[in-house]
Write a structure and sequence with these properties.
The protein has helices at residues 18-28, 33-47, 54-71, 73-80, 90-100. It is mainly α and 105 residues long.
């Protein structure tokens, strides 16, 4: 029997090439991230003067950063952390809206 790869590891390697970034966005990104990246990259490339690809580099850096946040357990944990000492839940939000609208009478 062979050892199977562990797919539980959420940390994606930091992409070093456009091919690696595209692959990582397809695998680890949110739905539509890869298409948005391609659109933003094409727009930046089309609007950049020859010899000045700073806008292209910014698009690449932005999506690499998004991917890093998306695959970082620490970043995702901080998004799930309580805000102001209270954990947000849909039910708590609904009750808060009812109270604000005067529905608690």
């Amino acid at each position: 029997m062979t050892t199977q790869p562990d797919h539980q590891d959420a940390a994606a390697p930091r992409p070093a090439t456009l091919h690696e970034l595209r692959t990582a966005l397809s695998r680890y990104g949110l739905s539509g991230d890869r298409d948005l990246f391609e659109q933003d990259l094409a727009a930046a490339l089309d609007s950049s003067p020859i010899g000045d690809l700073a806008a292209v580099a910014d698009v690449i850096a932005t999506y690499r950063h998004r991917l890093t946040l998306r695959t970082s357990p620490e970043a995702m944990g901080s998004l799930a952390a309580p805000i102001g000492g209270q954990q947000w839940t849909p039910a708590a939000d609904a009750f808060a809206r009812l109270r604000a609208a005067g529905g608690d009478r």
